[in-house]
Amino acid sequence: MTSQWSAPSAPGPVRATVPVPGSKSITNRVLVLAALADEPSTVHAPLRSRDTVLMAEALASLGAEIADGPDGSWLVRPGALRGPVDVDCGLAGTVMRFLPPAAALADGEIRFDGDPHARARPMSTVLGALRGLGADVTGDALPFTLHGKGSLPGGEVTIDASGSSQFVSGLLLSGARYDDGVTVRHVGKPVPSLPHIDMTVDVLRSAGVTVETEQDVWRVLPGPIAGREWHVEPDLSNATVFLAAAAITGGEVTIPGWPSHTTQAGDAVRTILERMGCTVTLSSNGLTVRGPDRLSGVDIDLHDESELTPTVCALAALADGPSRIRGVAHIRGHETDRIAALVNEINGLGGAATETEDGLTIDPKPLTSGVWKAYADHRMATAGAIIGLVVPGVSVDDIGSTTKTIPDFPGMWTRMLAKKDG
Ligand SMILES: O=C(O)C1=C[C@@H](OP(=O)(O)O)[C@@H](O)[C@H](O)C1
Ligand SMILES: C=C(OP(=O)(O)O)C(=O)O
């Protein structure tokens, strides 16, 4: 689904209010919990994009009933999980890491595969852990097959989760359904994207599951999972792309419905943009960002909010001074090797970016027109759109990749640019 797209230039300072769809991370956690619950659930304001539709379709083929409710909600009725089933993970980390621990509870054979690059994303930690918990799995990366027996003993596993927080989240989400629950112990370099594990613990507790945590150890006790009404927050990481438009054009963008308390890693954009010189205000209207005359470079550790790296790098490439992004070595295993991709694309437009062991440095230089490659990665595509706002003649080779987490990014972007003051 490649689709070359000429990135529109900003006609002036961008001034708009941009409602953004629901959080991918919350939607896909809640779908798994709703499918494993004791009673039906309603998921209000879910994200409906490729990653979440793949999750819903996979859970439905495993035995859950997922129907459309009023106002775009999803009604989820749990059912006995069974194979044979073929699961398409697309390029979704949340599907490939969260579903196998649930599918291990099914009766029958469950085969997993995904997009070409999905086969390169790290999976062996999750599959090794499932074997340790009693599952029968063939393969160590996509494609792989689970030979389900209808239940899983569970217990304690030690893993190295320095490659992805999703290894931990996936095991915890289904752990209450294992005979002995699950205890996940991490040994290795620090776990990245920790707010995402906090989010997992938070949704589990909201479903009445008992979770105990200590440093690098998470324990989920066996027990019921409550069905309930879930309300999905707007996706704050996707929102950063629209806020970036204000930051680089000296404009003002408001995202309505920004939560005052959240476990979403994207909330960190508030401090990041302030450090780069923006004025950031959180009020009952939402989050408003006003861009400065000149954006400052930043030296920043994004280990906890690594999915913001492409947006931050796009801003850094347009800033007034040098930037250094640290703590994100593991994003080489995201949708693409994001460090290499960002360096290639920034330099391809005449910039000066350099890979480091755990991130990159960017020295702003005047950028020129050219094709920005997305590598099938939604956040690479949106980073190209940000740069294209102020660098004439930029096109993004595969804007369709944004459907991974935003159903209509080109439409939202055009509407944002068409808005007048106020
Ligand atoms: O659990 C989740 O929903 C996510 C966890 C993070 O993954 P990593 O820990 O691999 O960075 C994040 O980057 C990804 O976008 C979503
Ligand atoms: C890393 C990301 O996605 P995934 O859930 O596929 O890992 C992301 O959205 O930035």
Automatic annotation (TrEMBL):
Its EC number is 2.5.1.19. One of its GO terms (cellular component) is cytoplasm. It is an enzyme of class 2 (transferase). Keywords: Amino-acid biosynthesis, Aromatic amino acid biosynthesis, Cytoplasm, Transferase. InterPro entries: Enolpyruvate_Tfrase_dom (IPR001986), Enolpyruvate_Tfrase_sf (IPR036968), EPSP_synthase (IPR006264), EPSP_synthase_CS (IPR023193), RNA3'P_cycl/enolpyr_Trfase_a/b (IPR013792). It catalyses: 3-phosphoshikimate + phosphoenolpyruvate = 5-O-(1-carboxyvinyl)-3-phosphoshikimate + phosphate. GO terms for molecular function: 3-phosphoshikimate 1-carboxyvinyltransferase activity. Residues 10-411 form the Enolpyruvate transferase domain. Phosphoenolpyruvate binds at K24, G93, R121, Q166, R338, R379, K404. Pathway: Metabolic intermediate biosynthesis; chorismate biosynthesis; chorismate from D-erythrose 4-phosphate and phosphoenolpyruvate: step 6/7. It is found in: Cytoplasm. HAMAP family: EPSP_synth (MF_00210). This is 3-phosphoshikimate 1-carboxyvinyltransferase. It comes from Lentzea tibetensis.
